[in-house]
Amino acid sequence: MRPRRFTIGRADEATHPDSIRATISEFISTLIFVFAGEGSVLALGKMYNMDTGTTASGQVVVALAHALALFVAVAVGFNVSGGHVNPAVTFGALVGGRISVLLAFLYWIAQLLGAVVASLLLRLCTDGMRPVGFSVAYGVGELNAFLLEIVMTFGLVYTVYATAIDPKRGSLGTIAPLAIGFIVGANILAGGPFDGASMNPALAFGPALVGWRWRNHWIYWVGPFIGAALASLIYEFILIPTEAAHLHQPLAPEDY
Description:
This protein has helices at about 15-50, 55-75, 85-95, 100-125, 140-165, 175-195, 200-210, 220-240. The chain is about 65% helix and about 0% strand. The protein has one domain (about 15-245): Glycerol uptake facilitator protein, CATH 1.20.1080.10. Helix 3 packs antiparallel against helix 4 (about 100-125).
């Protein structure tokens, strides 16, 4: 197991062109993802005038929309910021020493702002439709939903590490955005009927703020952060060999 290498980050990192470009990329990528993902839920609700998450076909459509949107969002940001599009993924990278604390905060701000702007745009474009966001389904306990978010986010961040960060990934890195989109779509099919399957605090926060729906909101922050930390600790410090740890830096440069 190699030693941890956490870095706070220098003051000039916040204003460095690479950091600014990466932050803007995270904002735009998250906006694209949340607009398409949450928009699919509103669109189905508009067409069928019902809670589409309660139907099998509606669940499949929502899962497919999120998978495709995340595939694109990660792909367009991959070469600039690493294509996190998710505060939990950024937290996993921070725990693994792949990003500085300062840059992580910049990413978090950009991701949350992107989600809020996307939700505002949706409300404007749909003539005032209130974003649905996430909530625990009737009959499902908070602890069950909390554990579900941990497990699903663990799978997501583990996939990110295996396909985008691992220095041994080779040509597998070319399908990283697709694999990441697939695992999110699959998790939505598995966990959507129980708690909506967020795995992404920004995706939960934007619609919650604009639609003002805060019930059980803590689950969609604490669960993903724990799952991301577990995945990064296991992959970064156990599965990546010490001699290969320095070969790959998938995020914005840390040496200026």
